[in-house]
Amino acid sequence: MSIVNKFTVRRAEITVAVVLALCSIALMTKSAQNRITWSAEENMGAGFLPFYLSLGMLICTVLTIVKFILKKSPQSKDTSAFIDPEAFKFVSVTLISLIVLVFTIGYLGIYFSLIFFLAFYLRYFSEKSISFITIFSLTTPILTFLFFEWLLKIPLPQGISEPLFYPVYDFMYGKITMPIKMIFIVLTIFLPTALVLLINRFIK
Hints:
mainly alpha, single chain, 2 domains, 72% helix, two-stranded antiparallel ribbon
């Protein structure tokens, strides 16, 4: 019997419950290092929401563990495989690709890492055409950049690719009228689609 078949629904339930309980305790401990009180004079402390949300999660996981021990839940009696081998393969690829994405963000930056991640993920899991995958993989980071960096003014990790964005920042915060900026945004969003369609036409 393979490891996948040995990991039953019953084992999955108790494993997840214990892990979440430990995570809840860790988050509560970390949140308690900040103020977790809320008063009219001091407003909400920085650790208030994380602490009490973690406390709620801990209570839920403890109830799950108790029900498991008493065998009161259907999952605590289910000895069937939690996940079939085919699904396990997809889950494994997803987890590995996400781990690689997290590590590459620190080096390449989130935008270029996102391009490679989306291209690989869509190519592996979907039956979409190369054109669609290319357009989606290029357009999504562009929209992400515009949303966080332009609208919310929240910079995301850029790694070694940061110097490539300096001209963009000069344009964004330079003395350029808003209509010109809006035209630039629209052209930037639709540029990948136009390039892919143009390349397909020449290739054919």
